[in-house]
Amino acid sequence: MSVDQHADHDVIKHRHRSEGPQKHIIVFIFSIILTVIAFATVAAGGVNATFTVILLLIMAILQVFMQLGYWMHLKDKGHLMPILFMIFGFFVAGTAVIMALYWVWW
Predict the structure, then answer these.
(1) Which parts of the chain have pLDDT scores under 50?
(2) What are the transmembrane regions (predicted)?
(3) Which residues form the domain of 65?
């Protein structure tokens, strides 16, 4: 192996593989499908209200995780601190909601 080939091999070996737009397009299409399903479920009108609320909540949670993972890139390495801060924020917000409900009802 010549010096030039060895240098090219090292460059190729150390490059980061980019994700490309394929996964973003798939996630975008999946988000559109979830949104259409949500609108169709509510527009149908004859669907049980409890089922509709549960379905909407599940689809909303799926969309949040997809958007955090792919659009906000939290699935990549080096994003531990933002994830921890968001978890702490959800904990504080959840605690505030629970305490407000407790304060109002008891």
Answers:
(1) none
(2) 25-45, 51-71, 83-105
(3) 3-75
Total domain count, the chain: 2
Q: Are residues 53 and 25 in the same domain?
A: yes
CA atoms within 13 A on the CB side of 69: 13
Task: Classify residue 96 as exposed, middle or buried by CB count within 10 Å of its CB (0-12, 13-18, 19+).
Answer: exposed
Residue 56: is it exposed, middle or buried by C-beta count within 10 angstroms (0-12/13-18/19+)? Answer: middle
3-state helix/strand/coil string of 24-58:
HHHHHHHHHHHHHHHHHHHHHCCCCHHHHHHHHHH
pLDDT 10s digits, 1-17? 555 555 555 555 555 55
79-91 pLDDT, tens digit per residue, is: 788 889 989 999 9
Do 69 and 86 lie in a common domain? no
